[in-house]
Specification:
about 140 residues; 6 helices
Length: about 140
């Protein structure tokens, strides 16, 4: 019923197929990790992705030819906001059998992927400081 409602109102159903659903889940996992580890407070995160305090635009004008951002979800979603840039970059990094090193060779976005790789290795085996929904 929910899929029919979304199709009627939005003309499409986001995440309807297994492939699309996995893309969304990887993206959302990026948000969860970013929040749980407060990654946005790190200087290098801010330098590469921008300030989390930036307002989400009501509309954004993506630059389809930009190599500053990874390509994952539709509509160049990484360009929408620094939080989305990180989540999209994380999703590309997380994809099994991803060839991100060769796919993004020569792109400025490669540095973001390398940072995510370094960051995830450094966090392996650590406990996230935020483990509930309460704001501190």
């Amino acid at each position: 019923r929910l899929a029919r409602l979304e199709k009627k109102q939005m003309l499409e159903v986001e995440g309807a197929g297994e492939r699309e659903c996995m893309k969304i889940l990887r993206h959302e996992a990026g948000h969860a990790l970013s929040n749980a580890y407060r990654l946005h407070l790190r200087k290098e995160w801010q330098r590469l992705f921008g300030s989390l305090r930036a307002e989400y635009p009501k509309f954004y004008r993506p630059k389809p030819s930009s190599k500053q951002y990874v390509l994952h979800l539709n509509n160049w979603y990484a360009q929408a906001h620094p939080a989305e840039d990180f989540a999209e970059t994380f999703a590309v990094w997380l994809k099994p059998a991803s060839r991100w090193r060769s796919d993004y060779l020569g792109w400025p976005a490669l540095r973001k992927l390398e940072y995510v790789d370094e960051l995830m290795r450094s966090l392996a085996g650590t406990t996230a400081p935020v483990r509930n929904r309460l704001r501190e």
